[in-house]
Write a structure and sequence with these properties.
11 helices, 3-stranded antiparallel sheet, 300 residues, alpha/beta
């Protein structure tokens, strides 16, 4: 079986993905961000067009179930912008949901994830889950177990929101050790928000992908360490484990508003990586690594 990447327009070969923003949001809503919803399709298209104008070819939307995925809108946005889109299923931390909504799906999470990965007019290509701050709480443990079950049923990669970049090793052990998910199918996000290069090396050495995202207003205090974090992994022989994403979660963070948005990755991050670490590292981060991280031998 040939490994493929599942986009909203169908499965593609990994080498067709191209220059990729490995972690972002076109649509998202949460009670934790009242009035800051990303729910404007025209604004989403403008952001994609800005990204594409700089050579961007693919975006992975990490918005999980119940947080305004707008799956039905993604194919048209992909066609109009020419940017390939990978959607997510999965579940975030409990605080992002109405308790009654959580209770209604709690016993059927794995089935829900599998359904969004394998059926319907628009299929997800990633399972997005989340840890808690410096630990795995009861909700996260339940969701991680469901994600692992869905992974084993479908082959889908699992992307993890690490709260402030913490609990990386605990989450990796839970997925890989307890639930037998191969580390190559695990992407641990927000690791530069906890800029401990020793932990980053451990994650990479285990075979998981190290996700760095930004810049962001909320985590600006550590954004300046991004290049140092990347360089440390490169120096330790783990250039093949690094992913970069914009992680735009509010309207004001978009480049079409008052923020750096998706284009920042290509007009600022990529040139700096090329200049300081070499063009081959930039190609790994933006092209080669995402092609491997989001591809799998799909079972459904």
């Amino acid at each position: 079986m040939t490994a493929m990447i599942r986009t909203v327009l169908g499965d593609i070969e990994p080498e067709s993905l191209g220059v990729c923003n490995a972690h972002d949001h076109l649509f998202i809503r949460s009670p934790q961000l009242p009035g800051e919803e990303l729910d404007d399709a025209d604004a989403a298209l403008a952001e994609l067009n800005s990204f594409a104008a700089l050579g961007g070819q693919a975006v992975v939307q990490w918005t999980p179930w119940g947080m305004g995925q707008r799956l039905e809108d993604l194919p048209e946005l992909s066609r109009r912008s020419g940017v390939q889109l990978v959607a997510a299923t999965g579940m975030h931390q409990a605080k992002h949901y109405d308790p009654a909504e959580l209770a209604s799906v709690r016993d059927d999470l794995a089935e829900l994830f599998v359904r969004q990965l394998t059926s319907g007019p628009v299929r997800a290509g990633l399972i997005k889950v989340a840890g808690a701050f410096h630990h795995i709480d009861e909700h996260a443990r339940h969701v991680l177990a469901a994600a692992a079950t869905a992974h084993h049923a479908t082959g889908a990669p699992i992307g993890v929101h690490l709260e402030a970049g913490t609990a990386a090793l605990a989450v990796l052990d839970e997925l890989a050790g307890t639930h037998n998910v191969a580390p190559r199918h695990i992407i641990l996000g927000h690791l530069h928000r906890f800029p401990d290069s020793a932990i980053h090396r451990q994650v990479a050495a285990a075979g998981a992908f190290v996700g760095f995202e930004g810049p962001s207003r909320a985590h600006h205090a550590v954004d300046w360490r991004l290049l140092d974090n990347i360089a440390a992994l490169v120096d330790s022989g783990h250039a093949d484990r690094i992913l970069l994403g914009g992680d735009t979660v509010t309207p004001s963070a978009r480049s079409t508003a008052d923020g750096p948005g998706m284009p920042f990755l290509l007009h600022t991050c990529r040139p700096r990586i090329e200049r300081e670490l070499g063009p081959e590292i930039a190609t790994a981060v933006f092209v080669t690594n995402p092609a491997r991280a989001f591809s799998t031998d799909w079972k459904g």
